[in-house]
Amino acid sequence: MKKVVSLLCLVLFISGCGAGNDTSQEEQEHRVNVQDSTNGQINREESEDRSRHLAKLAEGIPEVDNATVVVIGDFAVVGIDVNEDLDRSEVGSIKYSVSESMKDDPHGANAMVIADPDLTARLKEVAEDFSNGSPIQGIMNELADITGRIMPEVPADNLEPHPKNPTEEPEDKLNESEENKLDKTQNQQSNYHKEN
Q1: What SS3 class is residue 78?
Q2: With CB atoms 3.0 to 4.6 Å apart as the test, which of 54, 128, 167, 178 could cross-link to 174 if both were Cys?
């Protein structure tokens, strides 16, 4: 009886192995090779060259102590270090100057400039990860998180050019006689101030 059970187990094992081989051949015939299209299109060396170029442009602006840039394809994020004693309006002016310095550069025309110390520190880590060969998808996720902290969420209703239910009625236009009367009054007032 033991021999029959052992023989039966052996037959089932062999037939199971044979079925596994048929399945794997079938799988191999129908297997589709997928490549990561993001990695295939990103040239890390070229991106790092662009990053260094944009960092030099940013560092050429007065009050910018240091700049960190990550460029991936057409997407660029520029983090600038400025003096912490500057007030918000001065930092805004510096960010604007950095943006202006890049607007004519094909690699920096759409760059997002940040001056927040925490986000710039995170951007430095992302730049380091990029240089060390970390996967592009992870880097893109991190950049999306950084830029998401800057850009506000806007409800879709606010993006419509004409709201569905306006809060105010549009003012009626003046008829022609009222418009002429208004023009006459404005001219008289303007001439009155010229004479005095």
Answers
A1: strand
A2: 178
**C-alpha distances in Å from residue 21, one per residue of 9, 18, 26, 33, 56:** 18, 5, 9, 20, 59
How many angstroms separate the CA atoms of 47 and 72, rounded? 6
Domain boundaries 44-150, CATH class: alpha beta
Q: Among 44-53, 70-79, 159-168, name the one with the lowest average pLDDT.
A: 159-168
Give just the sign of the alpha carbon dihedral 69, 149, 102, 86: negative
Query: How many beta carbons lie within 10 A of that of residue 44, not counting itself?
Result: 13
Tokens found for residue 152: 């506000």
User: Domain limits of the chain?
Assistant: 44-150
Closest by CA to 84, choosing from 108, 59, 111, 66, is: 66
Amino acid of residue 98: V
CA triple 10-15-17, angle to 5 deg? 95
Determine how β-strand 64-72 pairs with β-strand 75-82: antiparallel
Structure confidence by residue, pLDDT tens digits, 84-132:
888 888 999 999 999 988 888 887 778 889 998 888 999 999 899 888 8
pTM above 0.70, yes or no: no
